[in-house]
Write a structure and sequence with these properties.
By secondary structure, this protein is of the alpha+beta class. It is built from eight helices and nine strands.
Length: 328
């Protein structure tokens, strides 16, 4: 009996170890998540370097990619087979991208790169020019739901004025082994009268993109909403690398020149830029307004009285003053 009691803790430990070993995880022949994160980071840096020489970018892309594999002591086949696994397990892949995004955010903030583009803006929510973006400034997308889309809603507050202008921008980079690249940036503004104005652009290359909407009719804004969507290429393989990096996401609100202007009653731009001139005052003679000799003549379609005919005849009988000859 005593021996059985002594063996119980040992049995319990063995059972726990067996349960832990049965827990689903990444297979041994697949590149582990921590190492995959480092490889993808270097892969991103390598692609950025390859784009500097536009004429030889395809050659450089291949060259730098092989350099990454050599650095981490893996083969291209091992990398591709690992991608096949992670593309089929999107939750694990998203966890890797999340860590990679956090790393890029920290490094960008440390270097000042993510805010350099916004240094000319007042980074508050009350200034005349302010960055009102509330989400992550860096993000990553893969063409598989729910990790292929970023949605946002920004309700208006007391810092929003009639006549405001809004500009959303970001820097996009694609890490694709194959397939067409296409992403959508859409922003919509709902005004106080519930009308909606939206603008949408497509992104297909490594570049900076912006979308701009203004409250031209000074209706006032209720909210701003939109999304960033990475579309899926149906003709491309589902097991190759397809990654979109978003950097420096910002949404800037610009106030109009509010000097001497009530924010709730913004005047029309034309009236501000072209103020009305004071009309000259009319001078009235002491004996009444001056009248033309023909001001009492009736309309041609009216019947003319004999008194008016006599008056008109007297005007015709006035001799004409000869014009002076200016020629010498």
């Amino acid at each position: 009996m005593i021996n059985r009691l002594n063996s119980f803790p040992l049995t319990l430990i063995v059972l726990c170890m067996c349960l832990a070993s049965c827990k689903p995880g990444v297979p041994r022949d697949v590149i582990q998540p921590d190492k995959m994160e480092k490889i993808l980071y270097d892969y991103h840096v390598a692609q950025g370097l390859s784009q500097e020489d536009f004429e030889n970018r395809d050659y450089n892309d291949r060259l730098y990619r092989l350099a990454v594999f050599k650095k981490h002591r893996i083969t291209e086949a091992e990398f591709d087979s690992s991608l096949v696994y992670y593309m089929r397990h999107t939750e694990q892949l998203h966890a890797i991208y999340k860590k990679l995004s956090d790393r890029m955010n920290k490094e960008a903030l440390a270097l000042g790169a993510s805010t350099s583009e916004l240094n000319r803006y007042t980074l508050s929510n009350t200034g005349d020019t302010a960055n009102i973006w509330t989400g992550d400034i860096n993000a990553m997308l893969i063409p598989y739901a729910p990790y292929n889309k970023i949605s946002f809603v920004i309700p208006a507050d007391t810092a929003f004025y009639k006549g405001d202008k809004f500009l959303m921008g970001l820097s996009a980079k694609f890490l694709y082994q194959e397939g067409s690249r296409d992403a959508v940036l859409s922003m919509a503004v709902r005004y106080n009268n519930d009308s909606i104005y939206a603008r949408t652009i497509h992104m297909s290359s490594n570049n900076n993109y912006t979308v701009e909407i203004d409250d031209r009719d000074t209706l006032g804004v209720k909210e701003i909403r939109g999304f960033i969507l990475l579309t899926k290429d149906k003709n491309a393989s589902a097991t190759t690398l397809k990654l979109m990096l978003l950097d420096n996401i910002h949404l800037v609100r610009f106030h109009k020149d509010m000097k001497n202007t009530n924010p709730e009653e913004v005047e029309d731009e034309d009236s501000n830029n072209h103020p009305q001139k004071e009309s000259p005052k009319r001078l009235t003679p002491p004996n009444g307004p001056l009248r033309s000799p023909t001001s009492d003549l009736p309309h041609p379609n009216q019947q003319i009285s004999p008194q008016v005919l006599d008056k008109a005849q007297s005007i015709k009988d006035v001799p004409e003053v000869p014009a002076k000859n200016t020629r010498r």
